[in-house]
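Lab manual, section 2.4: Encoding a predicted structure.

Procedure: take the sequence of the chain (197 residues), apply the prediction step described in section 2.3, and record the output as structure tokens. A sample record is shown.
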Amino acid sequence: MEDITVQVADASHEKYVDTILDTMAAAAKVRGTGIARRSHEYLATKMRETKAVIALAGDRFAGFSYIETWGNKHYVTTSGLIVHPDFRGLGVSKRIKDMTFTLARTRWPKAKIFSLTSGAAVMRMNTQLGYVPVTFAELTDDEAFWRGCEGCINVDVLKRTGRKYCICTGMLYDPDEHEAEPAPIELPGEVMRRIRK
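Recorded output:
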């Protein structure tokens, strides 16, 4: 197995977007759970804005995730974590999660970071990083975020419960409760320069 690199994505990685979207859709179908559908342009923009992480094995797509801000940058989500089936079980998701979490903390150090997930592996990773399970009322009230759930097959549950519950578990990292803790990894100087720009 060749080495897998995990890095902050840039515009050169846009060629992988359709593969990423196909991998996300296939994984949701296999699990029988929902996933918020994103457009090609949405993910390409995340790459250009230094808000995405990609894993590559040589030139083969291995994994991906992105971050987004909500509620006037008071909240950040790490979203869309996916690992290609050929690279599962190798620790790639943990490496991606650590990097998106570090990227979010670096860019918006005062923001609360949250995650909606129906996957046990993501819940474990979130817990290791200091997230705790919360009710949906403790997450952003930004309507744009919740519109992202419209593409999920479980959106009827969310609507039926008045956006209080769904199949996903809400998890929240509050930086005020972890002030002295360093991020799990250090971002390369080139990424820090892109962020400052």
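Check your result against the sample. The chain has seven helices and seven strands.
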